[in-house]
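User: Could you check the structure of this?
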Amino acid sequence: MQDNGSTRTASAAAPPKVTAHQIVEQMLERVVAVVSQEAQLTSALLELAQETQTRLLVDDCVALLETSQRQGALAQELRQAEHQRLMITQRLTPFVPGLDKLRLSEWPQRIPDPYATQLSDLCDDFRRSTDQLRALNRQNMVLIQRSLRYADMALGVEASTYGSRSESVHELPQLVDTTL
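Assistant: Sure, the predicted C-alpha cells are below.
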C-alpha cells in the first residue's frame, strides 16, 4: 500500500522564490506611496498656511491658534512619512548603490520606469508646494512681526498714558478686576 501523504512534490513544499528584482520593485512602490503622502501633507500644510494668513489679516486669534495646532499635527505626520522614506531608502540602497547619497529628485535617473516617472512627477509637485509654502510662511512671518510691533507700540502708548516708567506689561496698572 502506498502512502499518498508522503509523496509530496518538492515544488509544493518549497517556499516561493522572491527575486531581488521583485524586492526592489516592492520597495520602489512603497517609496512612491510615501513620497505621494509627503506631497499631500505638504499641500495640506500649504492650505493651512493660506488659512493662517487670512486669520492673521482679520486678527482672529482663536482661529489662528486652532490652525496652528492643525499645522503642528500635519508637520508631525510629515516627519513620520519622511522617516518611513529614509528607512526604505536604507533597505533599498544595497540593491541600488549610492541611492542614499542622492537627492530624491535625482532618483529617477537611477531607478526604472514606471517608478522613475511617478517619482519625478511627485518631486515636481512636492517642490512647487514647498516653494509656495516657504514664500507664504515668509509673508506670514512679516504679518506676525508687524502685529507684534503694533502691540508693542500700543503697550508703549498705554504705558506712557498711565505714567509707567517701565516697558513691562506686568507693571501696567490693572484695568480690569480679575477677582470675579
